[in-house]
Amino acid sequence: MSALDSLWVIAGMFVVTFGVRFVLFARAHKVVMPGFLDRALKFVPVAVLTSIITPMIFVSQHQLNVSYDNPWLLGGVAAFVVGLWKQQQLLTIVVGVVVFFIAKYAFS
Amino acid sequence: MTRFNEMRLGVVASIPMIVGGIPFGLLFGSLASSYGLSPWFAIAMSSMVFAGSAQFVAIGLISIDAPLWVIVSTTFIVNLRHLLYAADLVKYVKQLPMRLRILMGFGLIDETYAAVRPLYGNGVINTVTGHRAYIGSFLAFYVMWNVTTLLGVLSGELIPGMSEWGLEFAMVATFISIITPYLKAAPFWLAAVSAALASVVLVDLPNNLGLLVSAIIAVSVGYFADLALQRAKASKDSASRSTTSKDVEVEL
Fold this sequence. Notes:
Shape of chain A: extended
Mean pLDDT of chain A: 91
Distance between the termini of chain B: 57 Å
Pfam family, one (chain A): AzlD
Radius of gyration of chain A: 20 Å
Protein name (chain B): 4-azaleucine resistance transporter AzlC
Low-confidence stretches of chain A: none
Order of helices and strands of chain A: HHHEEHH
Structural class of chain B: mainly alpha
Oligomer: heterodimer
Order of helices and strands of chain B: HHHHHHHHHHH
Number of domains of chain A: 2
Helix content of chain A: over 70%
Number of domains of chain B: 2
Organism (chain A): Marinomonas pollencensis
Keywords (chain A): Membrane, Transmembrane, Transmembrane helix
Protein name (chain A): Branched-subunit amino acid transport protein
């Protein structure tokens, strides 16, 4: 990729990323959020983040993988259980990552 | 509270997710170098675009020589969720000066939203000074992301195969740690389960569109479940009220 191409990629990605994040803040003093939207928006983090990670956990090479030797599934389940049970963010992340790596090296 | 203390609130709330972000940043840098991209390119992307999952998708597309418009429009779609975060935060930023809103817009990532939004919700920070906690969180993630990108580029050149270690699992664990505290009421469970099902069913849609469609389905499910629950509660309340008034009549 040439230097000019690189520049265009960065510029293009910057414009759309910053644009999406800033457009409502730019008009924030004029935007009035209808009540139904507030009720819907509180589901956004759960909806978006679950949609990002579930395929990473369950799908490998276009195939559903729910076998016990799938390290993504084991690490994901461990983090989920610890997250629900202990409600401590750091513990959830560390336990999930540790289980994932143990499973990955145990089954490889 | 002093300015420093308020910024520190945002940093402290971000620490667990910063720990989760470190492997992810290292992976980004090492992947960029394994794809033969220049170190400057990786660093420019992390410092100018500052969007973890979109950066991964983008360098994947670059490595298969995708055209510019595909890279930019995919970035747009992957980042559309931030529009929804912004919509939720509008009520807290509307009285702030424009230069702060520009900075906060630039720094609006999943992790800062997840760290700071609950602080507004439970009253730890308020509309007047809460932006300092937000900016503290943003700066902490910004420094971490750029330093780990640089280290990843350097170590990716020294340690070949680092990109196959599975470091991206750190993102999965981080996102799970953001999701689980929400799972206390039935509508949130329904939203999570429908997002999980829909995202797996729709995983092969082109350009990551499955993510967007599945998120919209899950938000709708949560919304209608919440509405139904509230109506059920309201009718139960009015039913119990009418029984009480009957009891009163009998007593009279």
